[in-house]
Specification:
This protein is mostly helical. It is built from eight helices and no strands.
Length: about 190
């Protein structure tokens, strides 16, 4: 792996992996207005300055990753490509299932079905897997670093979303927290 970033525009670049997001966004936007509304943390959540900054940074970093992927050639027929492709496929499956679960659950209910049974934040998890897979398939340490920074921002967003959901759904959401890991793996009682 080279520490020097590769910049080469081409058809077989990382954008092929990253364009999966361009399919998910219209799927949600074309759904019911009430479903679209639940994609954002409401203004009344009262983010502090750090939370606002982290939220903006997460979006900026994600757009940076999307743009940078255009210039990163996939390292086809290497072990790195196949490892990255595997993460990408898992992330894409998670994203597709999570999107369907999200769209088909009423805004009045906690989403507990499908991949939301495995992770409280499967869309963030899927995004991380897709981006990490892209970084590995392109053998780009810089892209992987961008992915790590994005993950830190997403973690902060996940905490805010959980705070909002606890306020909105109360004990039902607390029970969900007690049963379901934030990301994937084991759950501790009163996961914070």
């Amino acid at each position: 792996m080279s520490l020097t970033p590769v910049f080469k525009i081409g058809i077989w670049n990382g954008w092929i992996f990253m364009c999966v997001f361009l399919l998910q966004i219209p799927a949600i936007m074309l759904s019911d207005r009430r479903i679209r509304k639940k994609t954002h943390v409401p203004d009344e959540a009262r983010r502090n300055n750090i939370e606002r900054y982290m939220g903006m940074m997460g979006n900026v970093i994600w757009f940076l990753a999307l743009g940078y992927s255009v210039f990163l050639p996939l390292r086809l027929n290497t072990i790195w490509f196949f490892m990255g492709l595997t993460l990408f496929i898992v992330g894409t499956l998670f994203m597709a299932i999570a999107t369907v679960n999200f769209i088909t659950t009423s805004p009045d209910h906690v989403i507990k079905k499908g991949v939301y049974h495995i992770s409280r934040h499967p869309m963030y998890l899927a995004t991380i897997l897709i981006c990490l897979g892209t970084g590995i398939a392109t053998v780009s340490w810089l892209f992987i670093l961008i992915c790590i920074l994005m993950t830190l921002c997403f973690h902060q967003e996940a905490l805010i979303e959980e705070r909002v959901c606890l306020h909105q759904y109360g004990d039902i959401y607390q029970e969900y927290i007690n049963r379901t890991p934030r990301w994937i793996g084991f759950t501790k009682k009163h996961d914070k």
